[in-house]
Amino acid sequence: MGSYAEEQILPANKVVPIPSSIDPSCCSIHLAEGHDSAIFAPEVASRLNPVTQFLSMLQLGGSLDPLLCQWANALGATVIGTVSNKEKAAQAKEDGCHHVIIYKEEDFVARVNEITSGGGVEVVYDSVGKDTFEGSLACLKLRGHMVSFGQSSGSPDPVPLSSLATKSLFLTRPTLFQYVVTRDELLRAAGEVFANVASGVLKVRVNHTYPLSEAVKAHEDLENRKTSGSVVLIP
Questions:
Q1: What is the torsion angle, in degrees rounded to the nearest 10, for the CA atoms of residue 217, residue 218, residue 220 and residue 221?
Q2: Is residue 128 part of a domain?
Q3: Tally of domains within the chain
Q4: Residue 126: CB partners within 8 Å, gap ≥ 6?
Q5: Residue 132 sits in which domain range?
Q6: Domain-located, residue 185
Q7: N or C: which end of the chain has fewer CB within 10 A?
Q8: Section 11-27 average pLDDT
Q9: What is the model's pLDDT at position 130?
């Protein structure tokens, strides 16, 4: 709501000051996707260590996905990313993926099993949903943790508890606004995002810019998956 408005009226406690070092054209990207990655990555950070395997069940075409890869890499995790084509595979490598799986060409569950020598991964971040949900669970090691944060292929079928019981798995579905309920939580999350942008840990990739007059084309390109990374409309 209000994305195309010239002005908005907001509660003062929801407004975040933008540091002068942040490019104004990218600040919304930093806050939206950055906040999500700030929450989703540390959500299981205590389980990560330098030998931990991290599986990102993503197509890595959205603007949040590269930030998650960068953040997990900075936490010292070994990052496994899944993508739909070779172009996105190169991008995933750039964002810190140690292993990249093109899931349209190979069985990602079998490939993860091979990479981890049958041990599975500690954490799975799945934004795809229905098409990868069961496979994502299968990639987890004993007492592994799965973070579901999207369903680009549709909502997964109801999850029987028996699917989790096979390896005592943990499943969570975090929502951004439930993590920034108070003013202090909002400022703390924003501050963490901006600090990581300033230090170079997080790098937002703006691959596509459109003049505001071509907003319809921008939406069509997004819908037809012709874009990758962040899309910015310039007034």
A1: 110
A2: yes
A3: 2
A4: 57, 58, 132, 133, 136, 146, 147, 148, 149, 150
A5: 35-177
A6: no
A7: N
A8: 82
A9: 85
